[in-house]
């Protein structure tokens, strides 16, 4: 079904105070227009990810007259633009590249989409593949002699290692040089995951030193282009290379199974080598270690049970920041709309609370937190490629900012169709009836979020008839104020919005993103102010030139908020 969304603003253009007890319209009114925001202290969980923060300038879009409802509001939103919750880090809008998406830098349409999306930070090389990746391998010399031909899986079965390497120039993979090219073309910075698994499965006399030296050589080669580095990917996981090693090939007495304490001890070796390399080239780098994001359950395997304590005890001082991953919904489950959307607020909140508790109780103290992989993992109904995934992305992004993560990278730019169980933001070329690199609905929800969410999250208060509505409000350094309103429910709403302490201008602008009618309730289409895609899935490819709705700021404003929709709204300043 078609979806709509809503927002409302009540603004009075005089600069003096008004009657705070209401007026004869029955709606809230602006208390005053003295704009003087106060920034809070820098949260420790953001830390250096805030370095280089710059204010955002709102770009006034093209406009078309928008319809303003005349019925009474069901919900009211009050936004105190002077009370700043957090200065939004620019690195929370990130994404992930991978090694099977091809040498994409020659694909000009995709490069433009990514540039428009403005992720600001793109991770490499490719999740779990990072632990079998040799950055300096070439077609002739793909991996070092001490990397065994076979590796063990978690059951102890041996199979070909299937190493990947950075110098591979084949069309089907993504070379390291083209990763740097991607960053340059899209005005992004990098975050790189080095091969920790090699420290476990390497067959040299000192595999930890060999792997740390390989990582340090990458830092030297990088020569200051990349500030953020991760030691391994999900190293606690039984799916990772190095989780279980063949002790008959190991020469430094490592246990068969990984532990948090062992990984933490190794992190200190990596950190020493990588920092020495950074000093040699005059670069500043920050090194991250992996933590487990949730309290272990009784059914979790041994490495997870004591993972965080082992890492924090042995690498708490060596790591500059800590890394978590979360895929929100239940694994391999045909999740419902409500199951998916309910996780967008609950997961970032519980993950941040748990990780903070783990750092504090271990005596390490709070450090920056990076959510370097996130998405949903629902299966069976094409949830991943639907507009519901887009609503989830917008709702999650607001929750990530509100919970004060320093960095976040969604997984991933392009993946594989798999009958719609595809977490890629763009069609890699295997989706039926869709053009190559066609943006999925999540692209549009994140694109308009970036355009209409400012650089400071502002405090807001919602008085609602139920829990359908979530709001994230903000201000721009250029003076405008706005809100993102998300309706996750099946009931229509009408919302009024009161910006407090805001010197209102003459207009406000908004976009409404809704879904299509195909594959209900998981439409693969998204409509932007009523304009939809020209193909079976995705959205309008002229997204950058679609006019926003606009109306005059002449007192109380109300907007219709139908079920399952998102509105991005900005009010102009005086």
Strand and helix layout:
Blueprint: E1 10-11, E2 63-65, E3 75-87, E4 94-96, H1 108-117, E5 121-124, E6 133-138, E7 150-152, E8 158-160, E9 164-167, H2 176-185, E10 189-194, H3 198-201, H4 207-222, E11 228-231, H5 260-281, E12 286-290, H6 302-305, H7 307-315, E13 321-326, H8 337-361, E14 369-374, H9 387-402, E15 407-410, H10 441-452, E16 456-463, E17 469-475, E18 481-487, E19 493-500, E20 504-515, E21 526-528, E22 548-552, E23 555-556, E24 558-561, E25 565-573
Parallel strand pairs: 2-22, 3-19, 4-5, 4-15, 5-10, 6-9, 10-11, 11-12, 12-13, 13-14, 14-15
Antiparallel strand pairs: 1-23, 3-16, 7-8, 16-17, 17-18, 18-25, 19-24, 20-21, 20-22, 20-25
Distance between the termini: 39 Å
Query: What amount of the residues lies in strands?
Result: 15-25%
The number of helical segments is 10
| Shape estimate | globular
Total strand segments: 25
Structural class of the helix and strand makeup?
alpha/beta
Main sheet specs = 11 strands, mixed
- Residues in helix, %: 10-25%
* Average predicted local confidence, pLDDT: 93
Could you tell me the radius of gyration in angstroms?
A: 25 Å
Low-confidence stretches: 1-31
Any descriptors?
alpha/beta; 8-stranded parallel beta barrel; 11-stranded mixed β-sheet; disordered N terminus; 574 residues
């Amino acid at each position: 079904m078609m979806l709509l969304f809503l927002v409302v603003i009540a603004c009075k253009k005089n600069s003096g105070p008004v009657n705070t007890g209401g007026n004869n319209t029955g709606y809230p009114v602006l208390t005053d227009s003295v704009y003087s925001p106060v920034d809070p202290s820098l949260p420790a969980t953001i830390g250096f990810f805030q370095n280089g923060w710059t204010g955002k300038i709102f770009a006034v879009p093209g406009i078309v007259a928008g319809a303003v409802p005349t019925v009474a509001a069901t919900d009211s939103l009050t936004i105190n633009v002077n009370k700043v919750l957090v200065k939004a880090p620019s690195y929370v809008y990130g994404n992930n590249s991978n090694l099977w998406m091809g040498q994409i830098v020659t694909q000009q349409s995709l490069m433009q989409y990514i540039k428009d999306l403005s992720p600001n930070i793109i991770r490499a090389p490719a999740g779990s593949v990072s632990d079998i990746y040799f950055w300096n391998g070439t077609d002739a010399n793909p991996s070092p002699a001490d990397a065994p031909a076979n590796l063990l899986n978690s059951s102890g079965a041996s199979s070909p290692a299937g190493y990947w390497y950075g110098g591979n120039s084949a069309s089907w993979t993504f070379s390291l040089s083209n990763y740097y090219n991607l960053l340059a073309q899209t005005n992004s910075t990098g975050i790189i995951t080095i091969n920790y698994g090699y420290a476990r499965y390497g067959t040299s006399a000192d595999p930890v030193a060999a792997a740390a030296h390989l990582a340090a050589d990458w830092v030297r080669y990088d020569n200051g282009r990349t500030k953020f580095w991760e030691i391994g990917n999900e190293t606690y996981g039984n799916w990772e290379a190095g989780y279980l090693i063949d002790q008959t090939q190991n020469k430094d007495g490592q246990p068969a199974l990984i532990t948090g304490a062992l990984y933490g001890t190794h992190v200190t070796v990596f950190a020493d080598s990588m920092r020495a390399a950074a000093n040699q080239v005059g670069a500043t780098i920050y090194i991250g270690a992996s933590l487990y994001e949730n309290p272990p359950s009784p059914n979790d395997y041994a490495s997870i049970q004591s993972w965080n304590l082992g890492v924090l005890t042995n690498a708490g001082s060596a790591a500059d920041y800590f890394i978590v991953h979360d895929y929100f919904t239940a694994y391999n489950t045909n999740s419902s709309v409500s199951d998916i959307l309910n996780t967008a607020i609950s997961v970032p909140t519980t993950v941040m609370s748990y990780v903070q508790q783990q750092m504090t109780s271990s005596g390490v103290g709070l450090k920056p937190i990076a959510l370097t992989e996130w998405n949903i993992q629902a299966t069976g109904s094409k949830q991943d490629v639907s507009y519901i995934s887009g609503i989830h992305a917008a709702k999650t992004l607001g929750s990530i900012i509100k919970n004060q993560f320093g960095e976040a990278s969604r997984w991933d730019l392009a993946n594989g169709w798999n009958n719609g169980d595809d977490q890629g933001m763009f069609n890699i070329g295997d989706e039926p009836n869709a053009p190559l690199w066609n943006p999925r609905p999540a692209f549009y929800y994140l694109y308009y979020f970036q355009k209409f969410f400012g650089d400071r999250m502002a405090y807001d208060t919602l008085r609602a008839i139920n829990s359908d509505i979530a709001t994230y409000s903000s201000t721009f350094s250029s003076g405008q104020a706005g809100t993102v309103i998300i309706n996750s429910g099946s009931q229509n709403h009408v919302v009024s919005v009161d910006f407090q302490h805001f010197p209102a201008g003459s207009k406000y602008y908004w976009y409404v993103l809704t879904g299509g009618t195909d594959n209900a309730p998981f439409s693969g289409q998204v409509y932007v102010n009523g304009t939809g895609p020209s193909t079976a899935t995705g959205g309008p490819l002229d997204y950058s030139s679609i006019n926003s709705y606009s109306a005059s700021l002449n007192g109380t404003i109300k907007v219709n908020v139908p079920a399952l929709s998102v509105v991005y709204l900005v009010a102009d300043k005086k």
